[in-house]
Amino acid sequence: MYKVYTNEVFEMRTNIVLDDSLVSQALALTGANSKKEVVNLALCKLVDSYKEKDIHRQNFIKSYFDKPIITEDFTPFNRDDIYAR
Question: Which of 9, 21, 55, 58 has the fewest CB atoms within 10 Å around its CB?
Fold first, then answer.
């Protein structure tokens, strides 16, 4: 199986049930002209949010590959040290 990457955007027609109250709020807050515009905006924001989380996750993992934790640098607490805090 081959993956094909293109720059084409395909539109899908989908019927969904939306919360009228949320749609009204979204229309008012965003200034969007239609429900379709609100849904597309929401999907874009959702995708951007997940991409940003993924970038942070990758940077976090990369930082530990670049500077691994060396266990010899850590001294374990004994019971007295823990209770002294």
Answer: 9
| Residue 1 identity (one-letter amino acid) | M
Residues 6+ apart with CB under 8 A from 49: none
Between 10 and 21, name the one with better pLDDT.
21
Q: What is the pLDDT of residues 37-85, one digit of tens each?
A: 999 999 999 999 999 988 888 888 888 777 777 777 667 677 777 676 5
Q: What is the pTM of this model?
A: 0.56
Nearest to residue 36, comparing CAs of 59, 18, 55? 18
What is the Cα–Cα distance from 60 to 41, expressed in whole angstroms? 29
What gap in Å lies between CA 58 and CA 80, rounded to an integer?
38
Task: Report how far residue 52's alpha carbon sits from residue 32's, in angstroms, rounded to the nearest whole number.
Answer: 24
Say how far apart CA 30 and CA 37 lie, in whole Å: 10
